Amino acid sequence: MNNPASVSAVAFVVGLATTWSCTGSSNQVDLILHNGKIITVDADDTIAEAVAIGRGRIVAVGTDAEVTGLQTRGTRLVDLGGRTATPGLIDAHAHFARSGADMLYVLDLSYPNVVSIADVVDLVRQQVSRLGEGEWVQGRGWDEGKLAELRYIHSADLDSISSGNPVWLTHTMGHYGVANSVALEMAGITADTPDPPGGTIDRFPDGRPSGVLKERAQSLVRRLLPQTSPEQIRDGMRALADAFNREGMTGVKDPGIPPALWEAYRDVLEEGDLSVRVFALWSTPNTVEATRVHADSIAAFTRPYESPGDDRLISGGVKLYADGSGGARTAWMYDEWSDGYTGTDAGNRGYPAIDPGVLREQVRIYHDAGIHMSIHSIGDRGIDWVVESYRMAMDATPISGL
User: pLDDT tens, 377-397?
Assistant: First the structure.
């Protein structure tokens, strides 16, 4: 909880069980916010004066007199001084576990921190000056749509200031990034390197790699990056939780985490530093047999609609990918991306991120195991494939609620 004396709005955590009545409550009251404007978000958008909270649940909402009358020994009483208290905001899609470490340990290339390629080059130059020969420069957050040049960053933009250091800069979406020539050479990427399955090596008209790698082609360079340590991951979680709270955010869905990040979440939770409720989706294997093993391993404790206790960390299901993205023009489409734009991406209809038959089998496996799925699907052909896969799974094994 932020100090109400220093902010104009206070976020409070709304639990699964909520009591809006002040009468007859025997619940423990740990905290009372009063003398404020309590946004209830009930059916009538009622604005109350006070709210009582106990054991992570709302006990009562009403007038100052009604709610403060529930105060007992040990209740913390906070005078809002007319300020507004809102239910905590939930981010429905944020790669929280990884982003915290990025926030602490890689260059921030997001707008308005950078507004041009020259700004990006300057930040990389400064980072190179702080590093030793051969050390990696990493950054994240650039968006060509917000750069003055309105184009991708290319390896040639970076080479003159990073000739002794490999550079990898991830786009804001995470679906592509750019490597300098040192990194391309380390990855063995040349004009003769074929696009990997589910990925694209962006090229100039003469076939030379531009430095931009899309979708699964990113792994050609990313596999060479130094590993983020477990402690750096945990530090990032703590820092990002604090940043979320400062913005009134109290919950997040983190899609696509491996076992190591689940363990990091559990560590931070046990240390009492996970001040954001996390609904996590597991990353999933790329083969049918490995998917069966994975489903068996998580099914027992992956029940998103069953409370595990304190609801602070929930194993909510799995994340799968059907295709790429709109920004990278890799989403799986029926029509060409160039339709109506002469000379742009002629012949490109995007592509699936995984063999479509494998994805369909994965849907069936997770569905039959009763595991909730979140599937990234952007192009119209990709979306149709996912919806049809759901229909087929439901026809074979009718299960409601997934």
Answer: 999 999 999 999 999 999 999
Q: How many C-beta atoms surround the C-beta of residue 380 within 10 A?
A: 14
pLDDT tens, position by position, 92-150:
999 999 999 999 999 999 999 999 999 999 999 999 999 999 999 999 999 999 999 99
pLDDT tens digits for range 36-85: 999 999 999 999 999 999 988 899 999 999 999 999 999 999 999 999 99
At 254, which amino acid appears?
D
Give residues with Cβ within 8 angstroms of 301, minimum separation 6. Answer: 308, 315
Report whether 96 contacts 276 (CB < 8 A): yes
Tokens of 44: 């009538």
Residues 6+ apart with CB under 8 A from 215: 175, 176, 198, 199, 200, 324, 325, 328, 330, 353
Taking the C-alpha atoms of residue 373 and residue 378, their distance in angstroms, rounded to an integer, is 16
Q: Is the pLDDT of residue 340 over 80?
A: no
Q: How many residues does the chain have?
A: 402
Write out the DSSP string of 337-365: TTTTSTTSSTT----BSS-HHHHHHHHHH
Rg of the chain on CA atoms, in Å: 25
Q: How far apart are the first and last CA of the chain?
A: 33
Bridge-partner residues for 201, per DSSP?
Answer: 213
Strand, coil or helix: what is 186?
A: helix
Write out the H or E segment, with its range, that includes residue 282.
strand 277-283
Facing residues of 38 across strands? 48, 85
Residue identified by tokens 């029509």 is 335
CA dihedral 11, 15, 17, 19 (to 10 degrees): -20
